[in-house]
Design goal:
The chain is of the alpha/beta class and about 240 residues long. It has nine helices and five strands.
């Protein structure tokens, strides 16, 4: 088995920093899963999942809605419990060999981010199909994946893989509204210890890209600038970072 390079997951992307508005059900299910692992099959609250032939949960949604954040959160919590698991971002699959999937069925959780990245590559689709079959046989691992594409999307060229992916449970991860984005920025700023005035927050929200990934990237840059300048985060600082002066 070829192990991937060690991955350091963002420490501030956990369940506490995820704004659940519009996604309450999927967050609740994921928290129940990680609380129950590795003995998730005995958890009464997970009855619908334990009855599945393939214990697969797919987080489906567009870019920058928080799908990866939820995978990171699950992995952080499992690491805290010393439950064996592995996170793989399939955007990086071209740097790996196909045997990276070997033996993963013996873990408690297999977290596969961006499985749409292998759509159309028959060799990788077959490797994922084989892994899912081994998960069915061993009856040990839970699989949580994220994707931009639903299981029936023709971009997945292997019919058997489309069939297997459809055996799982699909949760749509919804985009946050304006209030949700504001809450997410406030939460992340508080975690970073950033002193963010309401005026600076509103300016940031109205003059930057609206998706969460861009907002959090901007907040990280502002955190660095605030430390460098030894100043509280201000409208002027946001303007300079966005080159609006």
């Amino acid at each position: 088995m070829q192990l991937p390079l060690p991955v350091t997951l963002p420490v501030d992307e956990n369940f506490d920093s995820f704004v659940t508005t519009g996604n309450e059900e999927v967050v609740s299910v994921l928290e129940q899963i990680v609380d129950a692992l590795p003995l998730w099959r005995t958890a009464q609250e997970l009855g619908p999942l334990t009855s599945l032939q393939l214990p697969l949960l797919t987080l489906l949604g567009s870019t920058a809605v928080g799908k990866s954040h939820l995978l990171f959160a699950a992995c952080h919590q499992l690491a805290g419990k010393s439950v064996n698991h592995l996170y793989l971002n399939l955007n990086d699959h071209k740097a790996w060999s196909l045997d990276i999937f070997e033996g993963l069925e013996n873990l408690s959780l297999i977290a596969l981010d961006n499985i749409h990245a292998i759509a159309g590559d028959m060799h990788w689709e077959e490797a994922l199909f084989d892994l899912l079959n081994r998960v069915i046989e061993t009856k040990q691992a839970m699989v949580i994946c994220t994707s931009h594409l639903g299981p029936s999307n023709p971009a997945f060229v292997l019919p058997d893989l489309r069939s297997r992916l459809a055996w799982g449970v699909i949760y749509h991860v919804n985009q946050l509204d304006d209030n949700g984005r504001e809450e997410a920025v406030r939460l992340r700023a508080a975690e970073r210890g950033l002193k963010l005035s309401n005026q600076a927050l509103q300016f940031l929200l109205h003059h930057s890209e609206r998706d969460l990934k861009s907002l959090m990237s901007l907040l990280a840059r502002l955190d660095t600038r605030s430390l460098q300048e030894q100043k509280r985060l201000s409208v002027g600082m946001v303007k300079r970072e966005l080159n609006l002066n």
